[in-house]
Amino acid sequence: MRHLLIVLFALWQLSSVAGSSLQAPVTPHPRVLPQKQAAHFCRLLLNDGEGHIYPVKVYAQRLTTLLYTEPHYGEFSAEQVFTGFIFFYEDWAQLPMAFGDGRGRMLMEELHSGQTLRIFPHVQGREAVWYAPTDNLPTSIDAEHRKYISEVFDRLNAAVHDANWSLVDAFIDKMIQYQCRYGKAKP
C-alpha cells in the first residue's frame, strides 16, 4: 500500500509539472500603486463633464465594473486599477476587458492622457469651473495656477515611477488642498 501511495504521488507530481508546461502563459500582473496611495489619490474630487462632482473613488469603481464586470481586477482594488490606467497605461492596455476592447481602450486612453481628469477647480465669476491637466487654460487663471495645473501630473508621475511614496502622498495632499481652496463657488 505504501508503495502504491508513493507511485501515485510521483505520478501526480509528474502530471502537474507536465500539465503546467502545456498551459497558456500566465499574463504578468500589471503594475499598480500601493493600495494606500491609490486610495489616497481616489479621495480627490472629479467633475464628470456633465456638472456632477464626486470622489474619484466612485468613478474608479464604476469604470472598473464597466470594464471588468466587478469593482476590482483580480487582487487589485478599483482604486489601483484606476491609478494603474493613469500611471502604468502600457501594462493595463494589454489586458483583456469585458467591455468591448475598442470603447474600453478609448476610455483608458482618455484617462491616461488626462483628458477626463477634471480635478482642478477655478472660480470664474460665481461659478467653479473644473479643468483637466491637459486643458488649454484660460488667461483668467493666473500664471502660477496655470503652471501648477499643467505640471503637477508630470511631477506626480515621476514620483510614482521612482516609487517615492512619501512624495506621491505630498503631491496628492497638495492637490486635495487645492481642490478645497479653489473648488468653492462664490455666493
Characterise the protein shown here.
This protein has one domain (35-182). 57% of the residues lie in helices and 11% in strands. It has helices at residues 2-22, 35-41, 56-68, 78-87, 89-93, 101-113, 143-161, 165-182, and strands at 45-47, 53-55, 72-73, 76-77, 120-124, 127-131. Strands 1-2 form a two-stranded antiparallel sheet. Strands 3-4 form a two-stranded antiparallel sheet. α2 (35-41) packs across α4 (78-87), α3 packs across α4 (78-87) and α7 (143-161) packs antiparallel against α8 (165-182).
Could you name the key traits of this structure?
two-stranded antiparallel sheet; two-stranded antiparallel ribbon; 187 residues; 8 helices; disordered N terminus; single chain; mainly alpha
